[in-house]
Amino acid sequence: MSEAILYEREGSIAVLKAQNPPVNALGVEVRKGLLAGIERAEQEGAKAVLIYGEGRTYFAGADIREFGKPPQEPSLPDLCNRIEASPLLVVSSMHGTALGGGLEVALSSHYRVAVPSAKMGLPEVNLGILPGAGGTQRLPRLAGTEAALEMITSGRHVSAAEALEKGIVDRVVDGDPREIGLSYARELLEKGAARRAVGEMPAPEAVDFDAAYAAVLKKGRGQLSPATAVRAVQAAAEAGSFEEGLKRERALFMELMDSDQRQGLIHAFFAERAVSKLPELEGVSPRDVASVGVIGGGTMGAGIATAVLLAGLPVVLIEMTEDAVAAARGRIEGNLRGALKRGKISEAQFSELTGAALTVSTDYTALAQVDLVVEAVFEDMDVKREVFGKLDSHCKPGAVLATNTSYLDVDEIAAATSRPQDVIGLHFFSPAHVMKLLEVVVAEKTAPEVLATGFALGKRLKKVAVRSGICDGFIGNRIMNAYRKAAEYVVLDGASPYQVDEVVRGFGFPMGPFEMGDLAGLDINWAARKRRAPTRDPRERVPRFYEMLCEGGDFGQKTGKGFYIYEAGQRGGVPNPEVAELIARDQAQQGVTPREFSDAEVLRRYMCAMVNEAAKVVGEGIARRPLDVDMVMLFGYGFPRFWGGPLKWADLQGLDGILADIRAYAAEDDFFWQPAPLLEQLVADGRRFDDLNKAD
Ligand code: 3HC
Ligand code: NAI
């Protein structure tokens, strides 16, 4: 008997207890154990079977680590069918999370009971696949087609109460999963309840599946798995029999299993969990953080304060003047009112968070007791150094002093204090209470427990924290600057900004680079360009149309005009016709003869620039692993999750082809298109970026 499933008898009931920590994933040993348990129960003459999980949860799904490897018997679909076909009464008792294959095992059972805190769902589409063990056939038979489509295409977890309402569980009872399962099974036996196989229930009603397919594909920006899942649910309604529906589900499942998107999404799943596991943090305890200071209550400071308050920590925010104090408080209250409106906090919490939990002052002495401070004042080294000097004299020993700078040198900021070991970069993204990414920037003298504290704060704020070394723009902004330049070059050479935006959206980004510029404010980037101009390498090509637009006072959405024109009350903008004139003038001044670019070439250049810079960032040790870059781009820059990140995408495309294209582009501009040494090395060695993820 498999050790992953313990077989026990309670009178006429055979009890199958899953013990495969941490989440009782349905790996091969668990499947073998369940099959053997059902067979033994039948041979021994038991009358019913109870299935439940030990520890945190019922089964959280198939074992994702087995994907892409040779299949091992029994397969999950066969197991589910075998459970359903058993002549004994099979009861599942759920607690924790019954997800994916886990819920499918429950749906194959004849009766289902759950504790009130249990959550269940079919989240397979988030891994690039679809429920492949009968979930797309059984769930609509129980919950109806519309409800099943919604749950399966969103991957949403539903509460036990909602599952009861939808008919997915038969009963919700508080208590120990074993005990409530046993008492339900006994009750069913006593009243002589019949076996009840979901597969034998009538086919669910048909809906307009083509419309559902199109809507889901559009919503997923090209992600295939949710749309394909619609076709599987369609089979439940239209295949003619349960068995035919299962066959169709299997075929669609295998199609997705072989897709690049499945590889991208599984990479994202594991990378999201691996990103905070750094060898240098092993055994290092973070410092306690019970209160947080924030310096500057502008866009970022207010967002950071909001995030910290929502995580349950009190905030002391320092501003320059009484007016600025009032403005900062107003911004934070506005953010929190948004959270209140969306039901994230109650009225009482709103009052608490804007009352006792928040102090806003002009007086640095208010910071005497805080455990960690995040500075978010103007992006100016002199101002930052002055602020850190004050923090040094007002904060208690051991307080972590963090800067939210986007580009400035954290070592130089740390040198303004007598305690550089306590200084770190915590680079949030705007809006800071919404965006999931946090770059934790390690300066030369940052102490390991200060780094650990940065990661612990990230976790507390429910952010994805990524370690970054120091360079101009850290991981994310540095890479963004490179692909934004590539976008400007193709425009200077003849593509239109609107073609670029459309191509980039077509890849799966929510926005293209020119729309993004309009949203963020073109003046911000203009200022950075002016700052860099004096030290710019003379070999660098410099498109001018961007500056020309700014010189005319058009900064994007905030002025109503940029690359696009924004009408009040309209969502999005329409192309600004003046832009074409500016580009033509720029081309004439620079002696460029514009040419046509295919959409494929626009995308290729954009992505090659991204991958090349990302490879430099990894090669220089700014990012520790390729997966760190991938997570930065996913959580901070809207990179489509279904490609896993730029370096996973690069692996899937083939690194040799990318390098060959970069070398070909270098024939036109060998300053911008300098291949990353790491990329050249990997191609020479026949290795991939993912090999570096596995190195430690
Ligand atoms: N397979 C393998 N490992 C898994 C796993 C799975 N299905 N689910 C979680 N794990 C691992 C995690 O990688 C992590 O490992 P680590 O400690 O080495 O990093 C560990 O279990 C704990 O997971 P979390 O850190 O995520 O723990 P949480 O408590 O935060 O979350 C969870 C628990 C909600 C279950 C979350 O892990 C989760 O969402 N898991 C995936 C669930 C899922 O997608 N199931 C469907 C699988 S596909 C399927 O079933 C196909 C079928 O239809 C044929
Ligand atoms: P902002 O201009 O909106 O806010 C800055 C605030 O700091 C102002 O309210 C100002 O009154 C206050 N301030 C200035 N000097 C001060 C001092 N000595 N003491 C107390 N308060 C002071 O700027 P924003 O956009 O919030 O940026 C702040 C920092 O965050 C910058 O370093 C910026 O580079 C960085 N950042 C900005 C992002 C963005 O998207 N806006 C994203 C990530 C980082």
Structure description:
- The chain is of the alpha/beta class and 696 residues long.
- It has three domains: 5-258, 2-enoyl-CoA Hydratase, Chain A, domain 1 (Alpha-Beta Complex); 289-468, 3-Layer(aba) Sandwich (Rossmann fold), CATH 3.40.50.720; 481-693, N-(1-d-carboxylethyl)-l-norvaline Dehydrogenase, domain 2, CATH 1.10.1040.
- It is 49% helix and 11% strand.
- It has 29 helices and 19 strands.
- The chain has an eight-stranded mixed beta sheet, sandwiched between helices.
- Helix 18 (474-492) packs antiparallel against helix 24.
- The longest helix has 21 residues, at 599-619.
- The radius of gyration is 28 Å and the shape is globular.
- It starts with a strand and ends with a helix.
- The structure holds 3-hydroxybutanoyl-coenzyme A (3HC) and 1,4-dihydronicotinamide adenine dinucleotide.
- Give the structural class: alpha/beta
Our estimate of the beta-strand percent is 5-15%
So, CATH architecture of the largest domain?
Alpha-Beta Complex
Task: State the shape.
Answer: globular
The CATH homology group name of the largest domain:
2-enoyl-CoA Hydratase, Chain A, domain 1
Q: Ranges with pLDDT <50 over ≥5 residues? A: none
Strand order of the largest sheet: 12-11-10-13-14-15-16-17
Work out the number of β strands.
Answer: 19
Give the count of helical stretches. 29
> What is the CATH top level name of the largest domain?
Alpha Beta
The helix content is 40-55%
Radius of gyration: 28 Å
Mean pLDDT: 97
Described by strand count, sense and barrel closure, the largest sheet is: 8 strands, mixed
Give the terminus-to-terminus CA distance. Answer: 35 Å
Q: What's the oligomerization state?
A: single chain
At CATH level 3, the topology of the largest domain is 2-enoyl-CoA Hydratase, Chain A, domain 1
What binds here, in terms of ligands, is: 3-hydroxybutanoyl-coenzyme A, 1,4-dihydronicotinamide adenine dinucleotide
- Tally of separate domains: 3
